[in-house]
Batch of 2 targets.
Target 1
Amino acid sequence: MKRLLSWLLTAVLFAAVGGLCVWTFMAAHEEGGGEPEEVTESEAASGPVVFHDEAGNVVVTFDHEMQERTGIEVKPLQAASHQPEAMAFGTLEEDPSRSFALRSPLPGIVRIADGARWPALGDTLEDNAVVGGLEPRLGPVERADLAARLATARADVDEATASLEALRASYERKRTLHAENKSVSDQVLQEAEASVKSEEARLQGAEATVHILQSFVGVTTQPADTAPLTVTTGGEVAAVFAQPGEAVESGQPLLRVSRFDRLLARVSLPAGEISGAGIMAARIVVTGREDAPLEAKRVARAAMADAVTGGESLLFAVSEGDFSLQPGMTVAAYLQLPGAPETGVSVPRSAVVRLTGRAWVYVRTGNDTFTRQEVPVDVLTPEGWFVAEGLGPDDSVVVRGAQNLLSEEIKHQTVGGEEEEE
């Protein structure tokens, strides 16, 4: 009997100790953040408080006074729409229409004016700048050829003038129809305008040729002493092919001048995945300047496929924005695909903070509470990051001072010895 009572007493004692251990473990687990922490008024008033909500998101509390002191600014998100896009890569290259090559009109020797300097790489030349002269070297054959070329150049001027008048009249008719009832599409109108500009450039070149040849030929078809070498289209000197005192032949290039305010982006499409037929516009992002996308319009489809990818190549006209462009820069192109646009919101770039390789924003979830929420940063627009899911126009985010909230959160983890799992 005594042995039975001793056994029962020992069993009760072990059960009591085990229950105490289980209660202690559960209490410690709850204390470590298993459930959302309650923030009391005294804690909120004493300074920033960091805790987790029921979904596990990090929440930071900043009272009104602290928000003003740290410069916290909150704005509601704006509704936005975004055309479906595909991503491709490419490089910038010179636009041939923005480049001018000065060629020797006749055989001769390159001369410079007294006290002048022959252009060097990187120099900037104005339109119709006279950079030097050519001392002609003409025999009877060259003189006969000169007269023939002058006659041909004058005929080219007459032809280009007549063609330009017809193209301008056609363009004006199409523009009127487009404005009245849209019976002419935007693409047809753009093509007509491009034809006018192309013919204007041809006429300008023909007139420049006549002017140069006339400077060599007098009323008796005798060459002048020195003919001026004129750069009709100014820009930056990109190449120098001859120096003063050198003998040059007819048609030999002397200088090449380019303007880089507009370049061409040659973009290679993935082979077999995207067709360039319906792609007319793109956003071009220069490597290193992802914060400043540039709008671009397609100007041509390359005649040959890309040698590396085997896909189609498209050419887009890109004008410089807040920074200068140079040939050879690598770019990412966001190609606008046909289809209905997506709807979402535009998140300002100033609202995004980076942590553990991901992008986050602080969403106001109360007068003094801000919840950190991850956002995708795949679609960059001039207004900010386009987000289709997870945020709406009813949400307000911190657009200034978000880094202060993140710093307070990190400081709380450091002081409390906690390490958030990402």
Target 2
Amino acid sequence: MKKSTTLTTYRFSFGPWNISEGADPFGPDSRAVFPHEKKFALYRPLGFEGVQFHDDDVVPGLDGLTAAQIQRQAARIKAILASEGLTPEFVAPRLWFAEQTIDGAYTANSAADRAYAWDRTKKCIDIARAIDCKAIVLWLSREGTYIREAKNAKLAYDRLLESLNQMLAYDRTIEVWIEPKPNEPTDQAYVPTVGHAIALAYASKAPKRVKGLIESAHALLAGLDPSDEMAFAIAHDKLGSVHLNDQNGLKYDEDKNFGSANLRSAFNQVRVLEENGYCRRGEFVGLDVKTMRSQRGCPVVEHLKNSRAMFLHLLDKVRALDQKLVQQYRDARDYEALELYVLKHLLAVK
């Protein structure tokens, strides 16, 4: 099949936390620490251009700093990014570590805790401005409950919308990307799917600036197909970014290498992105993957290289699909033949 001469060029991003020391809830570090700021020099050689940030990845210990100190540190990181030829994709307020966020942030029952969340969010937006970043990501990690009676759910959703509107008013140009997750660390989240995130977007005072960020594993944890979630967001022009990884069933968030657990699911995620023109406006393909705790080395980066290579390999598979044959099978409603064709195509079997 002849390939188009106007193929999309994909750009890739990851967060510095993806190069880790191997600690998990059940064990300590298993690798030596690799200095945080030395990670930026690894991006370009690995084929990555975008950097995902939490606010304290840019400014460590920001709760104890003055506004001037925050701006100086942000300016320093901006200079490092420029020297390495990197683009900050987004900055996310880390609203799940502080004592004030034990019961949630924007939905906390305590007014003082909600005030802390808003102050931290303003600092996060200021940091994004300082490093020339256009997007804030909201992973609403503790915006939920361990037991349903702990919070007034209607009031919690009202507070989430109010907080979202405050962000949009605080900065009239920034976009807010909501990253839904159905559970972990809370038992039940208030915004578990991209459909919930998009509903909040439409209810907000600036719907065009509110989008979703879809992580493969999070969709799987909700019992949904990541490619369908991506298609839904694209249909509403609200796919801000993706975090590609994989997941073995309905357990904790594993962040496995992209395509490592379900290759066909990964193929369909790439297919939906490619067929619908994702990345043509400069969007990034983000990875959020953890290497195996048993892996030796410092720094360990094979999981990033392998996941990016798998995306590009599956992209070639998508572009080599015989679309006329696919349409013939669809027209004939012969989905058995279509499935066999896809499986053979993935396996390179004639």
